[in-house]
Design brief:
The protein has about 190 residues and is α+β, with helices and mostly antiparallel strands. It is built from 4 helices and 10 strands; from the N terminus they run βββββαββαβββαα. The protein folds into 2 domains: about 40 residues, no CATH class; about 140 residues, Nucleoside Triphosphate Pyrophosphohydrolase. β2 and β3 form a beta hairpin. α3 crosses α4. The longest helix has 13 residues. The relative contact order is 0.18. It binds guanosine-5'-diphosphate-alpha-D-mannose and magnesium ion. Magnesium ion binds next to β7 and α2.
Length: about 190
């Protein structure tokens, strides 16, 4: 018998995204088998990016309201984040170019793919693909701000890299994908 066998998939909720309950048999290392149930939230995969300018030592981040944080201790519910979006059928590269233009107004051509990661492996199927890309003022072709029709109201923020990095430790940047990208840029000396 295989280590894992999916026995049942029950849709608990299918609205904007899908919450499924999986029942599966799990063969333990001692040879015994257990039946387990787990709720799994499927909202698709996404891409995230930080734009950087080595000359000015600045990076582009966004700020927007996030209800899950508001209901779990993040005072006004606003989050400073790397620009990001759901793939919606695009490749990670296509998605990140489109989201960057929609949210920040910058038209990037050469996003560099770095790594990918499950973000909440115990409950959410989502993989995020991580990117960085250089930017300068000549690439600003639109206002950005996101899609009003979809309820988005996204502020575009330009930070000195070192200031943004410090904000991880003051609790002003508390978004995992953003922290991961800032730490990557620090470790790999991207701004030096
Ligand atoms: N109606 C409705 N709309 C929703 C719902 N959930 C999200 N949306 C809308 O769907 C759009 C998603 O925007 P994107 O820019 O594509 O994604 P994102 O929310 O920025 O997600 C990014 O960050 C997330 C948090 O770190 C990531 O989970 C995600 O992969 C991606 O990287 C937004 O307009 C948002 O309001 C919902 O339950 N109902
Ligand atoms: Mg977004």
């Amino acid at each position: 018998m295989k280590k894992i066998e999916i026995l049942k998939k029950k849709v608990l909720s299918k609205e904007w995204a899908t919450l499924n309950e999986y029942t599966y048999s799990f063969k333990r290392n001692d040879g015994t088998t257990q039946i387990q149930n787990r709720e799994v939230y499927d909202k698709g995969d996404g891409s995230a990016i930080i734009l950087y300018n080595k000359e000015t030592h600045k990076i582009i981040l966004t700020r927007q309201f996030r209800i899950p944080t508001y209901v779990n201790g993040n005072n006004d519910g606003y989050m400073i984040e790397a620009c990001a979006g759901l793939l919606d059928g695009l490749t990670p590269e296509e998605c990140v170019v489109k989201e960057t233009e929609e949210e920040t107004g910058y038209k990037i051509e050469t996003p560099k793919r770095l790594f990918h990661s499950y973000m909440v492996a115990g409950a959410v199927t989502e993989i995020i693909y991580f990117f960085i890309a250089p930017y300068n003022e000549s690439m600003k072709i639109a206002k950005g701000g996101g899609l009003k029709d979809e309820g988005e109201e996204i502020e575009i923020l330009e930070f000195d890299f070192d200031e943004a990095y410090k904000m991880i430790f003051t609790g002003q940047i508390i978004d995992a994908k953003t922290i991961m990208l800032l730490q990557h840029m620090k470790i790999e000396k991207i701004m030096e």
